[in-house]
Amino acid sequence: MSDKYDVIVIGGGPAGYVAAIRCAQLGMKTACIDQCLNKAGKPALGGTCLNVGCIPSKALLESSEQFEFISKHSREHGISVADVQMDTSLIIARKDKIVSDLTAGIAQLFQANNIDWLQGRGTLLANKEVRFEPLSEAEAKIYQVENIILATGSSAIELSCVPLTADRIVDNEGALNWHSVPERLGIIGAGVIALELGSVWRRLGSQVVILEAMNDFLGAADQKIAKFARRELKKQGLDIRLGSRITHRQINDNELIMEYTEQDGEQQLAVDRIIVSVGRHPNVTGIAVDEACLKLDESGRIDVDDECETNIPGVYAVGDVVRGPMLAHKPSEEGIAFAERIAGHKPYIDYNDCPWVYLYTTRNCLGC
Description:
CATH superfamily of the largest domain: FAD/NAD(P)-binding domain
Structural class: alpha/beta
CATH topology of the largest domain: FAD/NAD(P)-binding domain
Shape: globular
Largest sheet: 7 strands, mixed
CATH architecture of the largest domain: 3-Layer(bba) Sandwich
Strand order of the largest sheet: 5-4-3-2-1-6-17
Number of strands: 19
Strand content: 15-25%
CATH class of the largest domain: Alpha Beta
């Protein structure tokens, strides 16, 4: 590993690893600091998207779609299958292999482009210094660098009225790793992540009820698309209840009770497991020391200009920690633009053209 870099990227998700690779391709000596650990507790690149987000959810969607098609729809094609069996553990294992293969692929790209992967925590200090604290027992090291990119991503929002518990009340990450199918599943939130996970476990056998506080469904989408999506999801068996605000939860030995208010007053719903999926917040806590004077905007994200530069010259921020949609393709484009900009090029991103991708097929409605 080098003692001097042209660029240090903090964060190894779709913003960070793409920025690091493009910087290296443009001839800059680059390091990427990342503290993400996979299910096995080992360092893994790819951030939320590859490890506990887009990739594993799509893998489970595909497996659950295959199961439902074989068990319920193959006869329409003249194909009869008797005694269809499902092994949830093998479905999860397939998902884990896909994740492992892709994250390993990023590590290979780093190696091919001579990027140093610094496994640990990175913190912005004053005077454009970065402190690197290794995951190992090695001592922390401080680097002076001219160009720094902050790409630490986001985390799932937790609800104080429904705190998470091991296995029974989980966020999206926990719901990707169940080895048994809950008979009754409650989901708090009706965004695309909630709908994906609800679709997965409904296809595998759960009775799914989704409680959404807002009165609008998929408010960020075109309303014709949202109306159509809700109708199709209802046909598929998802019970989506809008205007339902969670107030409390009870944990009993055999079931969980969700208490919520709706138009008709106080209600209760008994389920076996709960997924909390009410959005995400930027990972800015501890990203910089106070002395660095990094400015945040009113929403708690890092304040940047049109070129993703912060109030500190030479320090940039991209992805979920800055304004704009928390979607993987957006930070990847920002990462490329950052690299090309400091290389003297003049890239341009039109955020009005950044798509919110909602895909529909005859058996699947989801967002990515």
